[in-house]
């Protein structure tokens, strides 16, 4: 690994309810100085849940995404609340968004989303041993849940309404891991 | 697909050099109203390039990511400039960041990053028929390029310094597509 640049200064430049923009002044090891903007990461991180039922289907939710002003198929996900670890948050979000709890939860990978300008991280959790259980969440409307066969990911990823890079990565990783476990 | 919520109002709430934060007031089809914050998407989108050499290695770059204050291994990527299409931008970024041009370029998938609160999209491009060609870019330091075997993705994804969800998704999709083409 190369020598990290020196962080000369971090300055808050804009702030809203959810977002905090910062400028970070850097001096790289070759002497070059740069100022970048980034979103400060707040909170305890987030989880994304790949919940697999007994028939090897993954549970997908249909959710309105305000960033792109459209409904998307994706995996249940949400922020880790104070006092929770990633697995507890995953089980809670699964109950709130998909109406299932999980007997077995396992961390697959901690991912970054856009690391050049965001500190946000999301932990992918594999959930198995599902049982019906619904917790009330803060969603504005109930989410339709689809059970999608894990051996038909190609068809899923060819759909325009399944586009979230982190969800595509999570499903491939989970499929590979479960296939290896079967061998 | 459900009926999309009505967009009652969009209000700019904070602005910096790179980022524009907006509030979006929504009324869902069940009558529930919500206000969400999001980052407005500006510009023409971005590209991420999976460049595969004759030996079936993918070209990785090592880049400092200001959002997480560390170096990461990832795929070359960058913004589409005015006047460029996605394939032209991909070939230019590949030349700037990795020192290679490509004879054959192909769009694999348009991905979203965090669609609940960002409109940003990134187009994954498969690049083949590589030849040495370096264009000067705006990077603060030269990026080290690694040729990583496409049949050793598991080992790559188990590394803590390879964490970008979009890059993991891109490499799995490209590997699957190239395997199918060989059959």
TrEMBL record, chains A, B:
<dbReference type="GO" id="GO:0006167">
    <property type="term" value="P:AMP biosynthetic process"/>
</dbReference>
<dbReference type="Pfam" id="PF00293">
    <property type="entry name" value="NUDIX"/>
</dbReference>
<protein>
    <submittedName>
        <fullName>ADP compounds hydrolase NudE</fullName>
    </submittedName>
</protein>
<dbReference type="InterPro" id="IPR015797">
    <property type="entry name" value="NUDIX_hydrolase-like_dom_sf"/>
</dbReference>
<dbReference type="InterPro" id="IPR020084">
    <property type="entry name" value="NUDIX_hydrolase_CS"/>
</dbReference>
<dbReference type="GO" id="GO:0004081">
    <property type="term" value="F:bis(5'-nucleosyl)-tetraphosphatase (asymmetrical) activity"/>
</dbReference>
<dbReference type="InterPro" id="IPR000086">
    <property type="entry name" value="NUDIX_hydrolase_dom"/>
</dbReference>
<dbReference type="InterPro" id="IPR051325">
    <property type="entry name" value="Nudix_hydrolase_domain"/>
</dbReference>
<feature type="domain" description="Nudix hydrolase">
    <location>
        <begin position="41"/>
        <end position="172"/>
    </location>
</feature>
<keyword id="KW-0378">Hydrolase</keyword>
<dbReference type="GO" id="GO:0006754">
    <property type="term" value="P:ATP biosynthetic process"/>
</dbReference>
